[in-house]
Batch of 3 targets.
Target 1
Amino acid sequence: MDSLELTYQVPGDDFSRAGEASSAVKRTLKTLGFPPDLIRRIAIAMYEAEINMVIHADGGVVTARISPELVEVSFADVGPGIPDIDLAMQEGYSTASEQVRDLGFGAGMGLPNMKKYADDMTITTTVGVGTTVLLQFQIA
Amino acid sequence: MKIRDIVTLLDAKVFCCEDRLDTEVHAGCGCDMMSDVLAYVKDQAVLLTGLVNPQSIRTAEMMDIVCIVLVRGKEPTPAMIELATERHLPLLGTQKRMFSACGILYSAGLLQEGDQS
């Protein structure tokens, strides 16, 4: 299999559509025959990242690069940025609104979950400019 | 147990995917916070929730959850039924409250999340 690149625009104004990119990548990985446990890890981490883009940054662009050795997914937004990454990484810490909590998110588990399920996570962020989260998954 | 047994035990209504009621369920999770659901991988699990929006279906899809039960008599939105149907995910509804519904399934032998023994 050659490497494959998939790009998705994540709309920031429609919470009900959040997760469509994660769902599409999950189905592609399944079609390509990747192991189910790996697919589940990728899907969960991607979904958390996608939800974060919608609730904190008015959407953004998801790019998934799939090769036989590595699956790499980047989430680029032009949102407010993360002022304190160490604080944002703490389980239970969240800046999400009450409205978002009513929708079942904002428990402060998003970034910790992404880190837990990905083999490597890199966050590049500038306050007032935006954030890019890169998740990497090694294929055993 | 099978999804069909959950329908009987919880006197549940089936909103979609009646053809999948013979799927085996090995674990259960009762939760309204989807982030908490996403924190623990479970195998062949049922999700009991009071959260009525399409993200409960999306969460189940990402986790490979095999069945969703809406508690306290909540009705799914048309968008939820559509998404659950697309993903072949049986969506059930029970009049029972979360605590009772979880208790009934636990007493009937369904294990808690992560408990594989």
Target 2
Amino acid sequence: MELDMIRGLSSSPRISVLKQRMLDEPRFLSIEQAAIVTEYYRANPDRPRNIQRAESFAETLRRIEIRIDPLELIVGNRTAGVRAGVVSPEAGISWIDEEIERLPVRPQDKFEVRPEDIETFRSDIRPFWKGKSLEDKVKALLGDEIGAIGKVAKINQTDHSQGHICPNTKDWLARGPLAIHDDFIARSKRASKEKRGFYLGVATALRGAMDYIERYAALAKRMSETEDSPTDRENLREIARICAKLVKEPPEIFREAVQSLWFLFVLLHTESNASSFSPGRADQYLYSYYRNDLDKGILDRVAALEIIEALWLKFNQIVYLRNSNSAKYFAGFPIGFNIAIGGVDDKGKDAANELSFLFLKAQAHIGLPQPNLSARLSEQSSEEFVRECARVIGLGSGMPQVFNDESIMPALMARGISSKDAWNYAIVGCVELTMHGNALGWSDAAMFNMVKALELTINNGKCLLTGKQMGLDLGSLADYRTYEELEEAFRTQMDYFIERMIKACDRVDRLHAEVLPSPFLSSVVDDCAGKGLDVTAGGAHYNLSGIQAIQPANLADCLAAIKQCIYIDHSVTAEEALAAIRSNYEGNERLRQFLINKVPKYGNDVDWVDEIAAKWVSYFAARMAEYTNARGGPYHAGLYTVSAHVPMGQNVGASLDGRKAKDPLADGGMSAMYGRDKNGPTALLRSVSKVHSCDGSNGTLLNMKFLPEFFRTEEGIAKFASFLRTFVKLRINHVQFNVIRKEDLLAAKSHPDEWRSLTVRVAGYTAYFTELANDLQDEIIARTSYGEI
Amino acid sequence: MDGAIIDIKRFTLHDGPGIRSTLFLKGCSLRCAWCQNPEGVDAAINLWYFGNQCIHCCQCESVCAYGALLLDEEHEPFVQINKSKCTRCGACMASCPTRALSFDGKTISAAAAAEALLRDVEFYRQSGGGITISGGDPLVQHDFAIEVLRLCKKEKVHTAVETCLYADYEVLERFIPVTDLFIVDLKLADDAMHREYTHRSNELIKSNYVRLAWKKVDLLTRIPLIPNITATESNIAALARFIREENPDGRVELMNFNPLAVNKYVLMNKSTEFFEGMKPLSASEIEELQKLLESEGLSVVKEHRRLRSEGR
């Protein structure tokens, strides 16, 4: 590998210009696709749903406005403007009706709105979809139940397509849309009558895809004819050539492959408007194109890096429009183009190659929220690779985040994944684990708030915030004679909500298959073709559902306080504790401080406390394993909140870890409550390692924050690399780092204009700091940092 | 065997190679005017009051059986400790909901100290790190320190000792078999100044330094840069000559003054007069001093580090 050469590469002027243009362009709400889709459905009300989906998708691709910037090396977007908020009426738009005027001014994820679009939306689009969208159907079937259990078990995927899939990009590149289309046509001819419609739907979607690529070829050709600049003219001609070729043939050279990859993801987002499709292990499946071009002498590393950086910019042009509540949970419109570099190959050997290093270089240069770059580390990882990751982490864009092959592969295999698929795992969304090209992981089915379940357990099933009877009345803290009795009651309370949660998840899952079949997506997920089943109906080889257990840190801290103070040393009575949390510690700051300071906390390498976290996570994971989802696959547990620890905390009253009512829970998933891990990063890692990695097979998230000084010297980089290696040894699934000074964050908060491109790690993804809501900014500033060491 | 310790700090990165944990022992033979860890000077454990953490709940006064605490709403500090009445029973500390009332250390066994130090052994293995004993000065509680070092060596962990070398050579010599790296502080070449600012002569320190260097142990020399006192051209040049003669292959590191320690004096109600107007040296000032060391042919560790002050 030519690592020294790669290390010396710089970013091209073309890339800087494109980046600046993108950041300068305002972000708009876009109803263009919604209008086309609505028109289609109005004219074709009686076709089967999968055909409606395929035809309206194809219609969109034939009509939607497209744009090429003559400087672009890689072209394509789902709207003409960049970073548009695309409206998807089939999934759910009632919230847009309510919030459309506020989109430009809401606290999180603002969008400009054209007045005429409000008019069209209200008169034309919204009325047609009433009662027909996924959201409305979920509401009709489950509305009350979702509300009734929501503070403990938040059911997700109720108003948008699922996404969170790593398609088989390798196969898409190897065959191209035409060959895949022909395969589906051939299968339709052999298929039984009830399956034929599925195959024809997929073929229709693929025909639309080819027409769309063809339109780019034509536009580039037209533009080249009037372009004055010779270099831009040449570039447009090359774009025209590549696009024309990709309509019919698979790519052969590196730039063609990257263009083909990007079209695939634009198409997936056009069909589903979902929050994540992952390229996955792109350094692996793009490598042969790269290597061949280098060997033939038709590509050098400078040009390869420019193509990669052009793709990196493209990843930032698609954002995901969420309602204001969801934007609180997933702030900064994470879209989850997750790329997993490095890792091991099928023989267990280090798989990092030159592309892995070029991807890191692109990340160092671009430093924007997308792609969500993930590095897979193993005991086989080379020192160069680990150090290069450390160096890029030190630059502060929050990436790459780090995953651990040594713990994740066994965790997946424990869920019934074959070893052949486990070694090839990738990441979707933020930190969710997936197999490559053959799985619908449904990784964010729900979030289970264990801290709320504990609140109900010690307060007669009543919500501390509203006094409403929400759970089972099993007694109060004063009624449980022993700690074990309390634990038993807690278990019963958890079971009660788990049962209701799973039922609701199953129904939502089935409604997706009914309302949002995804024919195009089904063309790039293994086994859909063979089974003749849409991916939403269980067509994928693996069909999991992931539910997050939230939040081990707070739960352990609360239970440790109860155990120590009430049942062991009797320093606090149960009545006193109940009175304190019922009054939100009003007039009892002494007890609150006592609980904070005098009870050991999760994250400090105190075994008995950490083991409480491990115990309940294991319990939750074991319960999940008992259920089968609507697509016939297993449920499993995840340990991440993204930024949901803020709104999830708003649902919880004062807790016995000294947290006040509605304050955020611990961030991330595996992190300690902020400010409570006092023994440094090694102690925190050791605490986290006590939670069994197998119990977080859906994905786990650990946030750490280091000061930039740490990365200033080669010695610091080397120490950080050894820190990462110990993380691998400790068998922790995931860790990510914010490397930024507190002073910089404070400055960015007060002078957002000067800090527009500053990115921070929110939780499993990176966002523009200045585009985050105030409370989330404050919370990030407050997180512990290690550095003055 | 028990020892009095200030604290164990994990993930220390500047007290030897790799990722480390450092044990701070109580007790020091010198009385440096600029001491950065004044709570380490006294070998005994004392009760302290940190007003910035106090929530004025007044519990402490009522639980003290000896009348050693006086609450004063009018004056700072709010809680006054009568040291002659205080038996260090810890009742007030247990009732204190914050850490406003705290001991400045604790007594633990060598086995417990070693166990705590070895918790991060995996980090040491991956990084080539290990454990460091600092203080105070480890030579004061030498039996305890040696036992902790021995227990860590048994686990094949790299060990370092940070010391001012003020002890009988026989004591120092016993550290050699269980210590991989000696981090030695030299402060002032001139003995009169040494006496003035540390209350001790530097004769014993110098002779120990020479004998240690002769033993060919791994030796890192550190010089604290205290403006206008140790950080003068004449002092650094004189120390450089001494080191070149006795330990020509050794590495030398200059440690910049750290103003954070002043805060600790404030919390302890100690006079901060000594620190008035004192600022850390600039990078260029440090480079000038480093050149003096290099001109004697010494190898200089060039991180711009500050003296450690374990803040609260």
Target 3
Amino acid sequence: MSELATRPSVRTAALSLGSIWPVAVVALGAGAAFFLFPYDLAFLTRIVIMMVFVLSFDLILGYAGIATLGHAAMYGCGAYAAGLVALHISPDPLLGLVFGALGGALIAWLSGLVLMRAHGMTLLMISIAVTMVLQEAASKARWLTGGADGLPGVSVSPIFGWFEFDFVGQVAFIYSVCVLVAVLVFCQLVVGSPFGLALKGIKGSPSRMRAIGTPVYRRKVTIYVLAGAIAGIAGALAAQVTGLVGIEVFNFSLSADVMVMLILGGAGRLYGAIIGTLIFMVVHHVAAAIDPFNWLFVIGAMLLVVVFALPQGLISLPDRLIRTFRRT
Amino acid sequence: MSVLLSILVDGVAYGMILFMISVGLSITMGLMRVINLAHGGFALIGGAIAHVLTMFFGLSFIPASVLAVMLVVAAAAPMERLLYRHIYGFDELGQVLATVGIVFLMIATVNLFLGSTILPIRSPQLFAAPVDLGFRTLPFHRLVVIAAGILVLAGLWLLIEKTRFGIYLRAAVDNKNAAASLGINTARIYLVAFCLGAGLAALGGILGAELLPVEAYYPLRYMVLFLIVVAVGGLGSVLGSFCAALGLGILDTFGRYMLPDVGTIFFFLAIIMVLALRPNGLMGRAQ
């Protein structure tokens, strides 16, 4: 609780200069990547979309302490919502994002009403089961989703009627980075708000928060819906950028990867989500390019080394180094 | 009627496989409170060793299986000493990351030596021979699986209820610190329970190869299934795992035969219902 008490004022903290740093770093990094790797933009775009997705997972796992293994449910619903909107209603990409967010939020709300009453192992299992039900439903409802073939040829119109998605993927990359920055700012506001502090309190001790009058269940459902909306945006982005939606969006491995990336980077800090995603996907990409058969050795060894050397995730590396040097 | 009976037999055989693989996971999760996502990896390694022994070295099925299970146990013991001992102390998220790392290394190892194709295990002719049960004929293999499952359940029951080790184990599951302060060597209990679980997983992997084909990505493919059995059964409960595995095996088989369109949805909705109503599983105790 001392951490909460020593904060000067939440509003000013959220608006102060310090909170601009992460956004600036992300924007600068994206700009540098754009010019340094002009031929890998498709891969970079995938990383950026994954960052949005992992950020949404950080809100529930890192801040509210809700561990699920079914975050792909919201991602997939967002992807299908955006794909269907683009095919049947309007090809406008921003409208697609809105519907993706709504799709993710809706399924998060429906499943969250049950999920947020569960804990631990039970919570993990129910969240997996929800995703499996959605995947089966998507594969059987051929008239709507195209079944196992997926939604083919999702195409979107130029952004604001102006910036058309080009073949190299420059517009797609910039578009995704803009969404990432917007989501990052939004997440900062959420975690800095009184609501975000209540979430940290719930993570620390639900019973104490209940005792001081916080409606714990309602707060958890709220953050789950918010995170679901952002995951839906990530899914919608993926659908628009790749032009495809398949039932793989509900794969268990996607939910598991998201959890691994977040813990790798360091749960409970927004930077952690970004760094974990970046490192995991780049190492994966490079290792798979060097040795397409044995790259899993590298990933497995990396996870073990990180968890044994830096239990708080990669984000704690600078702190660790500083402490080590001070001691000597 | 005969359709229902044959679904029942298939479901029970499937459930026995699930039980053999999952029960070790249930015991270790109940005992060490560790989320071991690498558990299916022991079934994979057991199956892979049995594949090598039967296909390349020409051993017959039974000695190959026994040797494979023993080798897995022999590999599990140093892993427990060197890796898992530290992992017990991590928080939940660290455990997830560490055991996912271990399962990746296991998959990569099998992939390196044997590739990512299905690894068949040569079983005796007798196993494929049809047996007439009156309402249907089925391969002898299914009966072997069912018998093995019952033997494992009986063996575990005797071990846990009737032996000194079982008393120590139950005490450690109930309260680790109290057990340790009474002079029970909990570190050794952990080691034995872990190796036992790994050996049973290997046995299940070998016997179940016909239903759950062994290949490099086996532990990831079926991880959800094993975890669900443990969660529905209740952590640390052998009988709970048995009931959950049989129930889920029958339910899944029934769904596939009778409701091919919505069978899987039905299966997972049933799991959500059970877990929503009984958060600690069928036989789990409140934690």
